[in-house]
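ATP-dependent DNA helicase RecG
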Amino acid sequence: MASKDSVASLKGVGKQAAETLQEMKIETIHDLIMTFPYRHEDFQLKDLADTPHNERVTVEGRVESEPSVLFLGKNKSRTQVQVMVGRHLVKAIFFNQPYVKAKLRIGEVVTLSGKWDRGRQVITVTNHSIGPRTGGVDFEPVYSLKGSIFQKTFRKLMRQALDLAKDDLEDCLPERFRTAYHLVPVQDALEWIHFPTDGEALKQARRRFVYEELLIFQLKMQALRKKNREEEGGSFVDYDLNRLKHFIDTLPFDLTDAQKRVVNEICRDLKEPFRMNRLLQGDVGSGKTVVAAIALYAVVTAGMQGALMAPTEILAEQHANTLAQWFEPFEVNIALLTGSVKGKKRQFIIDQLADGKIDILIGTHALIQPNVQFKKLGLVITDEQHRFGVDQRRVLKDKGYNPDVLFMTATPIPRTLAISAFGEMDVSVIDEMPVGRKEIQTYWMKKEMFGKIVGRMEKELAEGRQAYVICPLIEESDKLDYQNAVDLFQQLSSYFHEKHTVGLMHGRLSGDEKEQTMRAFTEGSIEVLVSTTVVEVGVNVPNATFMLIYDAERFGLSQLHQLRGRVGRGSDQSYCVLLADPKTEVGKERMTSMTETNDGFVLAEKDLQLRGPGDFFGRKQSGVPEFKMADLVHDYRALETARRDAEALVNSQEFWTSEETRCLREQLEDSGALATGRLD
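Predicted structure tokens:
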């Protein structure tokens, strides 16, 4: 079968080329034809009036001036000529091509391709030919290449490979999906993705491969979910429904409809014999903590223990205090275990836990120390789950016999990312705020209004409130002129003098120093906290009603929203001021979006559109898969469809036995997801 032959069998592939291709993970002809272009050069003639700024364009025009050449140094030059393109007199600029001067004669028709600068009416030319455009291809594939292999060489190899092998390939997509979604066969799709005849052919090829790629990815996710459920088993939590209802009735507030829905989803999972693996998303202030409390109490009524792990001591203490108040009328033994709990007190908690006398243990990463053992752990809840590593979460889970697991996050994750990054989990969303909570009033102001903003802050402080001032940098930087935390701390300390206390917090402080500063702010002895983004998660100071975010254009929308969520946690009206002079349209759009909505999910979707999935979670631990063809922002409908189809396939007996789905099964087996029970 030609597709399985070595790529070295192709004409023109010598030893060096074969080694370079191997570096690109191309060893067989099949590997080669499945290496897709990352874009296509579009050589279709365009009207400049309809071409957006900075887009690539191909035009025909007539030379209107003598070309001039400016030499810029060794082997560098700039050739410029005026060309009439339709109704537009434009400048055509050629870099490092002085020889074109002899070809460009006044009155000559030329075809130019390059980047269009709409404001300056300039085309920076990358391809040109003398004379009107005749023949040639409309779309030329551009591949991501390494070493000494050039685009022209690679295209020739691709043409050879397709002619040899495309007809040998089995179409992995079952016919019913191709028919239902009007998808072209794999042979046509391969021809058109590499050498499209026109724009429509390219579109149809892309549609086919986007769906196929997302379907195979979702099959892995759904198969992994099914395998983990069936093989790991789990604890059947036989909770007391009447006691649970009574607890909910004693709460000092009514649950929102969204909270009720999420509680029902979690309780349904607890009753199942498989292990719950659920992500709970809820915007800042939406009431995730009470949902966690209800789930923990359900486990306690079944005679089991629960654990709640938070990323900081302060957040763990806040959870412990809140839960202690709610559980006061009930016989629930709650303990707090953090790094600060030492000596006899620590040993007492560890002993009580092992004897089963502690019902709910709340703490930081201290919970995952080897000597912390539960008698019968039924539920693990991890707050702000993205702040813990995979191994840390796994250690806590392993302290019981497959306890149910609930991950909570206040970082609103767009649905497309939740489906892809957390596809093996069930996802619950609290998309409604508690009644009576006042919306934070958000304003975008320019730097010259700093004095006026500080005056407004002073009014809040005079009424006994507190304020945050957030900066993007710690100390002065030669490269960036953004205001820094140390500078601003000194300015504000001088401004408020002895009237109001100012504190400073940033990432270079030790853990103890951060805890002390945050505790002083929580207790009110610090009135203004100047900080970098270390306050982003889990700080609850209801008395803080004012936030100033300096150089707000430096932050993404989701981060701005998380920062804003530190105020507005009490009954008083709160304010957030974005001090920013954004230079780009994207920056301006971010500021406008922040002033228009307090809905974190709306902002998360907007952030995804503006920044793309790679930057959404941050580079280090994105959790977002990289796709050859699919784009999570634009292909979200295909992702939804692929997830639905994959779930139905994996849960049907037919998928595991039918000849029609054999090729998909083989891809699933090759991925290793079924063997390892995880996706790498």
